Every structure is written in structure tokens, then in C-alpha cells.
Amino acid sequence: MINSIDYIELEEKYGAHNYHPLDVVLERGEGVWVYDVEGNRYLDCLSAYSALNQGHVHPRILEAMMNQARQLTLTSRAFRNVQLPQLYKELSELTGYEMALPMNSGAEAVETALKIARKWAYAVKQIPKYQAEIIVAGNNFHGRTISVISFSTEELYKSDFGPFTPGFIAVEYGNPEALEQAITPHTAAVLIEPIQGEAGVIIPPAGYLAKVREICKRNRVLMIADEIQTGLGRTGRLFACDHESICPDMVILGKALSGGFYPVSAVIGDQDTIGLLRPGEHGSTFGGSPLAAAIARESLKVIVEENLIQNAETMGNYIVSELNKTTSDHVKEIRGKGLLIGIELKPEARGARRFCEVLKQEGLLAKETHENVIRIAPPLIIDRPTVDWAIGKILDVLQMP
Hints:
- It is built from 13 helices and 15 strands.
- Helix content is about 35%, strand content about 15%.
- By secondary structure, the protein is α/β, with parallel strands linked by helices.
- A hairpin with a 2-residue loop joins strand 11 (about 330-335) and strand 12.
- A seven-stranded mixed sheet has the order 4-10-9-8-7-5-6, sandwiched between helices. Strands 1-2-3-13 form a four-stranded mixed sheet. Strands 11-12-15-14 form a four-stranded antiparallel sheet, with helices on one face.
- InterPro entries: Aminotrans_3, Aminotrans_3_PPA_site, Class-III_PLP-dep_AT, Orn_aminotrans, PyrdxlP-dep_Trfase, PyrdxlP-dep_Trfase_major, PyrdxlP-dep_Trfase_small.
- This is ornithine aminotransferase.
């Protein structure tokens, strides 16, 4: 019988070493729980970076996927299918945006939004051809493609991968004055995460997003919100931007759009942005497939009909309030919105990974980010007894030497 050590050795021998996972080998998931090959049970407090807002193997989404898989999985966009128009309509009714453009991965959707912004710059704002600039925030994370890492400020993501795509300017996150000073007549768009997840669950000052929106409107610049991790209920609102009651020009969705069953992403916006694209200018063989659309439709229904957004707010507020009772000398700050929570440790705590490794031994899977932050982001279906169990484990582990 193959055990965890055997699987780890196979992966290390035959797989690229571009990840540093915890040494747990999972083979089954249900709801908020996952099980390793030895049968040990763990609470998933990462949710595949918020792709599993609906929990593992949600039965409704599974049924939708299986039903569609028996009918038709892929047509390419050379032909139409019955699922995609319904997804378009339901996304519009849920979000208030007029149009959507479906893709697969989150990074693909980011690239799509950037292309639309550049097309808008030349076709609408009349910026001289190929001189459009897009402003991003320092410590951003929008994916791993060449263009996306070109505007990353994290050296690890960029080293050895140049030359880089031009046309991007990074400013300090949370500083609207720095943003406004960076705007020029060539500025087409501002791309921003409402909360920076990968950077360590960095929440901007209150009013920042509203100020960014106002600056963009006044300067005739598009505001693009990357809600791949923060959207679809994770922060206790449909979108994290809803906390400040703003509507960006475009919103990028991914991860939980499929409930973890299939890569599904999308850019949503109005006719004046999404509607600029013409046949042949952009596309994807798998993006908008009948299988993807059927899965996304049911994933959205689960979020709404099972009240996952409200549960994220309630459980998230409770977790933060309880974790703030810690007496651990290791903790610098606990911050979060909804069920996107970061526990920042002091430098002298010697890194967050060792705490995550002990949490794994206690039956809770979390992941370190930016060395000193433990990210806590369980599926939005989590209930109060499970939350209480998790809080107890976390508080105990934070007391370790």
C-alpha cells in the first residue's frame, strides 16, 4: 500500500519544485474536512486560496457537473451552447454588471482585463497607440504569467524571468495620494486588490477604495478590481468592494466561481468596456464551455441560496474577536474581513510555517504567507461548533515556544 511518504517521494522525484507544500497527502474531501491517505482528518483552513468557498465536493455542484458532463462538455466558442447565455444572465442579475467574458484561470482573467483596458485606452480615451499605462499597487499578486509578474514588486516572482512587459507603474497600496500623483494623460486603468491576500491579508485604510474610485472617475481612468480571492462572499459581502459601496468599471472573478470543481474565471463589466472586443481579438478554447458554465451557475446559486455570504461575515467577526483574546507573545496583529483572516507574527517568532506544521499535527490545515503571516480562510459553510474547535487549536498552538 502506498503511504504519504511514498507519494511525497514520487512528487519530489518527478514533479517541478515550484511549490513548498505542507507534507500532507490528501485523497478525499467533504465539506470543510479533508482526509489524507492514512485516513487522518483535517479542517481545511485555506480553501484552495478561496476557491472552495462552497466547501469540498458540494453535492449540488457535483450533480450539476455530472449532469452536464453526460450531455456536452466542450464546443469551443466556434459554436454556441445552452449553458453560457444563462450564466451571462445570472451573473448580470447577481452583480449588476451588463456583460461578462469567461476564461479559465484567474491569471487568464487578469490578462483579459488588461487587454480590455488597453483597447479602451486607444479606442475611447484616445491615448496614443501603445502608450497606455496601467497603475498597480505595491505587493500585489495577480498571477504568474510574464505580463503579470512584470508589475509585481516581489523579487522572488520576477528574478530570472525577464525581460518584462512594459506599461505598468506600481504605487504604494493604501495611499490614494501616491496613486493620484502617478496618473498621467497616458493612464488607462488602475488594477487593485480590495484586500491583498497573498501579501498577508493586508486591509487598506477605511475609505481607500472609495477614494480610488473617485480619483479614477475624476481622471477618466478605469478602476479594475481583482476579486479572484476576495469575491463571491469570502469577506462577508458579495464583493470586497461592497464594503465601501463602490462599483469598479471591471471586476475579475475566479476561484470560487466554480466551487473548486473546474477552472472557471471571468471579467465582468458594462458595454462600454467588455463590449469593445470584436471577433478574433480575444478568446479561449475552454473558456465559456458548457461544462464550465453549468458548474459556475450552480456555484453561484449555492453561495446565494445557502446564505454563505452572511455566514462568512458572522463567523469571521467571531473568529477575529476570539483570536484577539490570545496572550501569545508571538502575535503582532490579527486582521481580517469575513473569513479571510491573517495572523501576523512578530519577526522573533521565527516564521509562520512552523506554526502551520504544528497546526497540521493538530488536525488543522493553514498556510503561511509572506513568511510571518498565518492565513485562516475556511470554506464559507463552516459552522459555529467547528469554528470553536478551530479557535481552540489555533490559540493553543500560538502559545508554543
